[in-house]
Every structure is written in C-alpha cells, then in structure tokens.
Amino acid sequence: WNEQSWPFLERFAEAGFTTDGIDTVVHTHLHADHVGWATHLDGGTWVPTFRGARHLYTERGLEYCRAAGNPGIAGVYDDSVAPVVDAGLADIVAEDADLGDGLRLEASDGHTPGHVSLWVESAGETALVTGDFIHHPAQLARPEWAEVGDHDEGEARATRARMLARAADTGALVIGTHFP
User: Fold this and answer.
1) Contacts with 74 (C-beta within 8 Å, 6 or more apart), sequence order
2) How far is the C-alpha of 85 from the C-alpha of 148, rounded, in Å?
3) Is 163 helix (H, G, I), strand (E, B) or coil?
4) Model confidence over 24-48: pLDDT tens digits?
5) DSSP string computed for 17-53
6) Given this model, what pLDDT does residue 138 score?
7) In angstroms, rounded to a whole number, what is the distance separating the alpha carbons of residues 96 and 112?
8) pLDDT (tens digit per residue) in 52-92
9) ∠ at Cα 97 (96, 98), nearest 5°?
10) CB 28 within 8 A of CB 131
11) Is 118 helix (H, G, I), strand (E, B) or coil?
C-alpha cells in the first residue's frame, strides 16, 4: 500500500533479496495496494525503491492513474508513480507485450482501464498472475460476483470468465494477488 510503514523492506532483505537486485517491476495496474513499495521516503522525498529496475506500465493504466483514477486514494500518482517516471525508470508497454523469458502480458480490463495480467511459462508449466481481475477465491466459482473497486463491473465479469476459461484450458496455476 502507499503511505505505510510496515517492515516490507526489512522482510525483503531477510528473505535474501536486495532492492538493487531487482531488474523488472511489472505493474498490473496502479492502485495503491499494487504500487506502494515502488517508492519510499528518503529525507522527506519519495524516491524509487528499485533503482536498477525498469518499471512497466501500460499507457491507459498510467493515464487513468494520472487523471486521479484511484477513487478514495489521493496522492498515489504523486508518491508512488511520478518519482519512478521522473527518475527515467518507467517503460510504457503494450497490454499484450511479450516481455521475454517466458513472461507475457494480457489485457484484463474491468478492474481498471489498462489492467494487465502476467502469464509465466517455464519448464513446460504455466502460471497466471491475476492482478486484480479476481479478488477472492469464491470468484473462481462465481466469476459474476463483482468487487467494489471494479471500474467497469460488466467488463470485469467478462474478463474473469475469459481469463479463468483460458487458465482452465491451459492447466495454468492461478496466482491470485489478493488470495490468502
């Protein structure tokens, strides 16, 4: 989340990672709970956390966030996105971009304009990182159930049905970003 002081970076380091060791940050969308640790306060100024990483945004997702498209969460663009853009670390990518190394984006609109999900293929296996096209495991059985934060409920329902059907057809492991 943005504006939080949880020990995320300490836990990140304890797990054996360094912020300088991250080379790519994929943003499925730009709600506060998905971009909050892209920056941190340093001497009262928001600065990028992953200084050696390219941060991937979609044009529509970035525009939605710039236009205050995060209802109820003021300042997300200013504190969690603009510092990355201003540091020259942002790349605008297509909503169906092939990122290489078995990573591919797919448009999954409805929760936000420009929302994407990430397909991961490795060693003959496939996984789907959902972003927020689905919020709760119950929606696996009931994809018609909306989530209060969906920008376009009808489009979100259609996206859930389409993406879950593709995951089932491919046998993909579904990694729900809000699942426990």
Assistant:
1) 68
2) 29
3) helix
4) 999 999 998 899 889 999 999 999 9
5) --GGG--EEE-S---HHHHGGGEEEETTEEEES-TTP
6) 96
7) 16
8) 999 999 999 999 998 865 655 668 899 999 999 999 999 99
9) 120
10) yes
11) strand
**Rounded to the nearest 10 degrees, how much is the dihedral formed by the CA atoms of 9, 11, 14, 20?**
-30
Rounded distance between C-alpha atoms, residue 89 and residue 51, angstroms? 8
104-116 burial: b if 16+ Cβ within 10 Å, else e? bbbbbbbbbbbbb
User: Which phi and psi (to 5°) does residue 118 adopt?
Assistant: -120, 120
First to last CA, the chain: 16
Cα–Cα dist 20/105, whole Å: 24
Do the beta carbons of residue 42 and residue 77 sit within 8 Å? Answer: no
- The encoded tokens of residue 11 equal 């836990």
Question: DSSP per residue over 47-96, as a string?
Answer: EES-TTPEEEEEHHHHHHHHTT-STT-TTHIIIIIHHHHHTT-EEEE-TT
